[in-house]
Amino acid sequence: MTTLTEARPPVTEEKAPRRVALRPGAWVVWGAVVFFLLILVGIVGAVVVNSFGKKWFGGWLPKGWTTHWYGATWKEFDLGSVLTVTLEVAIAVVVVSVIVGVPAAYALARRNFPGKRVLMVAFLLPILIPPITYGVPLATVLYKFHLAGKLSGVILANLVPAVPFVILVMTPFIEQIDPKIEAAARMCGAKTWVIFTRILGPLLIPGMLAAAILVLVRTVGMFELTFLTAGADSQTLVVALYYSVSAAGIRAQQEIDAMAVIYTLSMLVLLVVALRFVNPTQLVTQIKERD
Amino acid sequence: MSQTKISELRLDHVTREFGGVRALDGLDLTITGGEFVALLGPSGCGKSTALNCLAGLLPLTGGAISLDDRRIDGLPPEQRGFGMVFQNYALFPHMSVRGNIGFGLRMAKVPKADARRRVEDALNLVQLTDHADKFPGQLSGGQQQRVAIARAIVMEPPLVLMDEPLSNLDAKLRLEMRTEIKRIHQTLGLTTVYVTHDQEEALSLADRLVLLREGRVQQIGSPEHVYTEPANRFVAGFMGYRNELELPVKQVNEKTVVLDGLGDGGLTGVRRDDLGGRAVAAIRPEDFTVGTGPNATEVAVEVVEYQGREQAIQARTDDGVELHLRAGTRLAPGDRVTVSVPPERVLVFAAESPAAPEEVA
Amino acid sequence: MSQTKISELRLDHVTREFGGVRALDGLDLTITGGEFVALLGPSGCGKSTALNCLAGLLPLTGGAISLDDRRIDGLPPEQRGFGMVFQNYALFPHMSVRGNIGFGLRMAKVPKADARRRVEDALNLVQLTDHADKFPGQLSGGQQQRVAIARAIVMEPPLVLMDEPLSNLDAKLRLEMRTEIKRIHQTLGLTTVYVTHDQEEALSLADRLVLLREGRVQQIGSPEHVYTEPANRFVAGFMGYRNELELPVKQVNEKTVVLDGLGDGGLTGVRRDDLGGRAVAAIRPEDFTVGTGPNATEVAVEVVEYQGREQAIQARTDDGVELHLRAGTRLAPGDRVTVSVPPERVLVFAAESPAAPEEVA
Amino acid sequence: SPNSGGGAKDVTPDKVPDNPKNPVTLNIIDVAGNLQLTQGMIDEFVKAHSKVIKKVTYTKATAPELPGKIKAQQSAGQVQIGLVLTGTDGLSAGIDQNLWVKTDDYSSRIGNPNYQAPAAKMQELAQGHGMELVYSPAGPLIEYNPQKVPNPPTTTQELLAWAKAHPKKFQYARPANSGPGRTFLMGLPYLLGDSNPKDPKTGWTKTWSYLQDLGKYVDYYPSKTSETMTNLANGSADMIATMTGWDINPRALGQVPPGVKVTYLKGMHWVTDAQYAVIPRGVSADVVSADIQLIKWMLTPQQQAKAYDTGYFYPGPAVNGVTVSMAPQKSQQVIQQFGRPEYDRWISQFPMETSLPAEQQTAAFDQWDRTVGGGKVHK
Amino acid sequence: MASSAVVRPRIALRHRLAERGVDRTLLLLLPAVVFVVALFIYPFVYGLQLSFQPQPGSEAVSRYGSGPFADYRNFFGDAYLRDTIWTTLKIGLPAALFNVLASVPIAYRMRGRFRGKRTVTTILVVPITLGTVLTAEGLLAFMGPTGWLNRILLDIGIVDHPVRLTHNYWGVVFSLVITGFPFAFLLTLSYLTGIDPTLERAAATLGAGWWQRFRTITLPLLAPGLAITFCLSFVLAFSVFPSAIMVGEPARQTRVISIAAFHAAFEQYDYSMASAIAMIMGAVELIVIGLVLGWRARLYRGATGGKG
Ligand SMILES: Nc1ncnc2c1ncn2[C@@H]1O[C@H](COP(=O)(O)OP(=O)(O)OP(=O)(O)O)[C@@H](O)[C@H]1O
Ligand SMILES: Nc1ncnc2c1ncn2[C@@H]1O[C@H](COP(=O)(O)OP(=O)(O)OP(=O)(O)O)[C@@H](O)[C@H]1O
Ligand SMILES: [Mg+2]
Ligand SMILES: [Mg+2]
Q1: Are residues A99 and A131 both part of a single domain?
Q2: ipTM of the complex
Q3: D226 touches chain E (CB under 8 A)
Q4: CA D218 to CA D203: how far, in whole Å?
């Protein structure tokens, strides 16, 4: 056993110098992040403070506080049901657009076929062309088939830009995944559907999450198409919000702010819920980074 | 997915091109059920391509594949029901080892309890029980490879395709895994197509060897056949006839031939080709013996490599011909020794016979 | 990046944990400049981990690495200037073969013309000139591996770390590449740390072998030393002493020992440990000879594997002890033969000596 | 074509029953903020006439998008909106595109509302395709902070001089997005004595050059009236354009300090404003019937009194004979506290002009955008 | 053998098609294509043909007659309209570029593992929920002349008059950055984490410093994703509308093309002109995106990890 260890001085207990000091680049980046966040706090803070303020005629803070504005808007727009509708629409659009969009993105990412360019343009157009142009005829079609004026119409109309959006976002994600992994799944007898749900699904979660969040944001914020196809009981929050911002007439600034805060809060809840479930960093890499 | 056994798998002129270059060029092969076929050939000769075509992962550029007289080359991989061990493993990064191995069983809707048992068995087989809950990213190379093997084998598919499944394992483990693969192959009556670059593995496992070169078959035959009677100079070179001595032909007999330039009496060997003016004698290093005997010649030892009980020797004759041989006795560079080789161990090919390529395009 | 040669690289108690499990446990090793060190050990024993720690890709959990008495374990990999061939290649998928190989030279701002020449040389070396413009995704497994080798070697780094660089190459090519690696190592005076699972490779290439098991060093020594005098039962098993026969001790002498149960006169071997009641005799299959001689015993042949000139035999004594041996003569299952082994080729360890693990945790 | 009612089929008046066969669910869409004034009236109607309307749903939206929505429904033959409450913009867009039912056909059933004279003029803008519900003389008025502006301007020239002396302290919002902004714009031709106050393209030479001069001292044009109010409140502006409702209501809401004052410029003509109820073509006979009854109800003096609200559209009622004292208690209290007695005087004192028809308004906004708001680019 | 000889041509065709990328995988496109055709193509074609039918009595017709291109000629003939393209590009391009470029280094830093990473990520993504209205209101309140920001600046003494940060070009750009950055960041971060870190390690052993690793390994592998991120950010920024009005100077500096379209559609009720403007808008975007995607097509796109 003499070969096992060689004579050597005792190991020094001193810790190796680690790369702890941040490089200048890092300082700049983190500085920029902090700056951005400060601005953000200011912007959000100003609105939130005002929405609770009684009167704010300049000065650092309003004179007096109240929650009256929230009650007022809530009542005026019956926000309870509006929020429910918004939630339903948002979730339906996200789910359907992901289900329809991801397979299409898959085909676009994995295959080069004649006519692909034309198809890409066809998928790009709904994102590029403002709804002004196609909103009314689209709504006509939907009314004709008795789909508009209720939830289904709002959902369908919002899907028009959402599906291409998902396709566009997901294509690079799918390109990143090694096709060999799919091949392996097929060799295990997995059909296309299973490949999507069991193999690509989990690997694409960060991408789908990103796409879903963005679609969600766009849907909740999509005024024109929603308005054109909504019925009395299928209004979404943004319609109410736009009304309060740009409709004729007088309303308290605080009330608008209160509504904006409600809008943001409801989106925030959705976002945080989404982020709780999945982290926007890829599972795979996470595991790799553990070493 | 047919879990029934295969009775015949036929490849008819299977061809696959990549951008005009034929990676696989008219492969004709009939595999009978329960056979263990090994694909051999230099790096880049089309072995993986052949497996991928068989599995249905690459569309064919030409030819046909039929299983028991049913054309299957149009079938998607999941409907062929073959198992495959990928050269690069292709493990599911988001599933634990257990999840990876059990995936196929879940697909086949094997009852939970049964599946669990089979997964545990497979884990045991590849000696990964302790790592069952790790993810592929947390495994060593060899561990990953074993997961890939287990994942394919646990399905007990009628046809298993294995692409260098043991390349990252140490000698001891490789031996064990090899035995296991053989055992499974036999007990389950599977048909196996196996790619390896390890001759010993190929020889000991396979019923039949297929030698490929630049996408074209060079020889198909039993291990012994290929080993002792390589069809051409390329196969000989690839099968371990490391000494390829290009020498002028002195005398051609019916079965044997005498070449000039090695030893005093020339080099007598077995004739394998029609011969022109020059020929190539192919000799395995281990067929040389140190000491006088047939075809004796004196050489100077140049390089000695330690290889345990034996040494790998590079030596040179006085005529400047380089020889590779193995010696059990200790030699040192500079030593002069006489070596000999029995004529039946010397294969003589025409110099034009396809050579083991320096470069495989 | 220091292109100067290394004079001494010292690993002091280098330790690396993954979530509490020690993949590398107090590795002490001093590598002198120009040395060729091979790391050996079963799959998952920590070889890649050791290389990664050396390269600076994994932070240490404990211990220190010093290069010529300078602590380097805090340095980022790019400042260490070591070259590395990754076990999984890690080729840049968006660069051509040429681009991959030339990457390091571009980073080092080697003049264009010079770099081009060196890349071409490296391409030549790994026989990929014809594939120079392909992308990694278009290469076969072995071709990718050769790119990985070329990419590391073209830099001529003072220390090269190679993680199973030849595992996906065929025998012929492996032999050639092995020679090239050795040649480069010698002509450039590089220091090389080499992981392999191929014993022959390790024995013939390395100046020194390091045997690892579960992250701990088992033996460090010259190939011959490790081969003939394994430090313990584990090393013996790993180095090819495939027969590990646990038998009762009959008689203990100063240097030798006689065990009960094999042959009539017992099994005489070299004593390597202090012995208790039972001991383990480690014997290589190739050390058995068919025929009478010392330690003769009669066995029944059970399994015969074709391995070319030789056969791998699995046989059993009348006492039920299983033996692995090799035979040049043809045997068939059921044959009864007498086999013998010289006592100096039988190593006897205490039964408690660490065994080659069935399962490597 | 975009200008037709598409597939909308009109019900002819003879098909419209006096009472709906079945009580209807009425979808009311408000694009003018009109519900603030009229929701009380409607709710009371529904309570009192559950046989006519069993339920109302309210939708609020902005005017511009409304025609598109109605048109989509009409082209599909699926009109779901039963009644629209709109300002002049939505009204005339719909008239242009033939979206509204001709209410004149039902004048016998509605009866002749006893409109005040200026309100009656505003009703003419509806061209028989809608009924005016509320009315306000609006503006233009100047609102200022008396602490900063002890002597408010009394003429346009004084205003210009003041603005010059106090750059960036006078503000009015972009007319296209602001009631006071557009009232100021439409009132200026009268104040300046332009050749044709009804024709912004050719008849407003003085107005345009005045606004350009004034623009030199205007910091920027907010895109919402409320922002001018905020600026007045926090001191970044000292004088802004306003109108009656925008003077009273924000102070009542606490947006603007109660102490600010309002004045007018010499030569003032009121530019009146009104809001209407219109019925989209293509609704069922029952809905038309319910609409007619509802409109009639809303035009009774008792209901009209609710239009005083909190000074939001001051005064509000469109018909004669409605006094503050008839309004709900809360209205009375707000008007008492934040109303200005001088308004009644000014309303009777100055001539009333209807606001421009939508087309001319658009032209005026466009011109303003090009030459005043965007003028700085081209100079 | 006879039977297989008969079917051979059919199968060969299938293989040939597969070689060109036509196989059953393309069926996956079907739902999306059906969707786009059913719900988008008809309305879009309707809008397109509308843009070639100038509205009688409109300004375009009075100037350029009732030919199919009158609306387009009107748009390009009127500097006030034509300039909106330039104005929009001037806002949209820098904002989109900034969002994408700024998100790269931050996302790059966020890849590694550190405590609180999830929190920081979430906080950076949160502004996505603000919506244009809150952003606009917040900008006006916070950055307005009497807002907190100006108060702070005045109190510190950096400036002696309030700085105008709203109701001009910058106001709109700020609002686009605040809502657009998280968008770009979220995408970039997700694309970035799909890249196998081993590749960077390999580059490190070849002597590449962090910047070189980033430039030669990470960036090229990220580029296809960045291209898409840029396209989407650009589309968002190019179609900026509410904030151009609320925090911009809608008559002048921030008179973006969608204001012109809105004006035509909803103030003049000239839908054909609005369609024409929208088509022009789409065309401009398509040109920019076409350039970017054309560039993307030339990049490496494929697996960015794994063995080989
Ligand atoms: N996608 C591709 N595009 C272009 N050429 C390819 C592609 N895939 C493989 N090739 C080429 O086809 C040939 C055969 O490749 P294949 O992977 O079958 O080799 P192999 O026999 O498995 O080799 P190895 O033993 O090195 O794995 C190689 O020369 C390779 O470069
Ligand atoms: N990221 C990780 N997380 C947890 N465990 C890990 C991780 N990486 C490696 N390990 C474990 O550490 C041990 C050593 O791994 P290493 O890769 O060094 O093995 P190796 O000697 O290179 O094996 P092989 O010959 O199979 O490549 C293995 O048991 C492996 O499972
Ligand atoms: Mg291969
Ligand atoms: Mg390893």
Answers
A1: yes
A2: 0.86
A3: no
A4: 24
Does A97 share its domain with A142?
yes
Among B143, B149, B177, which is best to mutate for testing ligand 2, by the most ligand atoms less than 8 A from CB? B143
Q: Which H or E run includes E228?
A: helix E219-238
A66, A99, A127: which is the final residue of a domain? A66
pTM: 0.87
User: A120 and A228 share a domain?
Assistant: yes
Answer yes or no: is A5 within a domain.
no
- Per-residue pLDDT tens digits for E203-233: 888 888 888 888 888 888 888 888 888 988 8
Query: Which residue lies with its CA nearest to atom 27 of ligand 1?
Result: C141
Contact (CB<8Å) C94/E208: no
Q: Which residues of B touch E19 (CB under 8 A)?
A: 59, 61
CA B58, CA B43: separation in Å to the nearest integer?
19
Q: Are residues A52 and A158 in the same domain?
A: no
A34/A109 same-domain check:
no
Q: How far apart are CA D289 and CA D284, in angstroms?
A: 9
A93 shares its domain with A211? yes
> A28 with A79, same domain?
no
Q: Would you give per-residue pLDDT tens digits along chain C (361 residues)?
A: 445 677 889 999 999 998 888 899 988 999 998 899 999 988 889 999 999 999 888 889 889 999 888 898 888 888 888 889 998 888 998 899 999 999 999 988 899 999 999 999 999 988 899 999 999 888 988 899 999 999 998 988 888 999 989 888 888 888 888 888 888 888 888 899 999 888 888 888 899 999 998 889 999 999 988 888 888 888 888 888 888 888 888 888 888 888 887 777 778 888 877 777 788 888 988 888 888 888 888 889 988 888 888 888 888 888 888 888 888 888 888 889 998 888 888 888 887 756 544 333 3
Nearest to C284 by CA among B312, B200, B175: B175
CATH number at residue A191: 1.10.3720.10
Ligand 1: residue of B25, B49, B196 to mutate (most ligand atoms within 8 A of CB) is B49
User: A17 in a domain, yes or no?
Assistant: no
Tell me the residue range of the domain where A221 lies.
70-282
Minimal C-alpha gap between B27 and chain E (Å) = 16
| Number of domains, chain A | 2
Which residues of E sit within 8 Å Cβ distance of B?
3-4, 7-8, 11-12, 14-15, 18-19, 23-24, 306-308
SS3 B35: coil
A-chain residues near C234 (CB < 8 A): none
Task: Find the closest chain A residue to C23 by CA distance.
Answer: A291
Q: Dig out the tokens for B192 from the structure.
A: 């196996």
Question: Count of alpha carbons within 13 Å of A69, Cβ hemisphere only?
Answer: 28
Do residues A97 and A219 share a domain?
A: yes
B265 Cβ inside 6 Å of ligand 2? no
B24 and B52 in contact (C-beta within 8 Å)? no
Task: Answer whether B168 sits within 8 Å of C240, measured CB to CB.
Answer: no
Report yes or no on A9 lying in a domain.
Answer: no
Which ligand has an atom closest to residue B132 CA? 2
Q: In this structure, are residues C34 and C191 in contact, taking their beta carbons and an 8 Å threshold?
A: yes
Q: How many CB pairs under 8 A join A and E?
A: 325
Which secondary-structure segment (H or E) carries A86? Answer: helix A79-110
3-state secondary structure of D265: coil
**Ligand 3 center to C104 CA (angstroms):** 26
pLDDT digits (tens, 9 = 90+) for C320-354: 888 888 888 888 888 899 988 888 888 888 877 56
C-alpha radius of gyration, chain A, whole number: 26
Which residues does D230 contact at the CB level (< 8 Å), separation at least 6?
A253, D255
Give domain status of residue A289, yes or no.
Answer: no
Under a CB-based contact definition with an 8 Å cutoff, are residues C97 and C134 in contact?
A: yes
Of all residues in chain A, the one with the smallest CA distance to C53 is: A291
Mutate to test the pocket of ligand 2, among C45, C60, C87, C196 (most ligand atoms within 8 A of CB): C45
Within 8 A of A56 by CB-CB distance, chain D residues are: 233-234
Chain A residues closer than 8 Å to E196 by CB: 285, 288
Looking at chain C, which residue has its C-alpha nearest residue A9?
A: C12
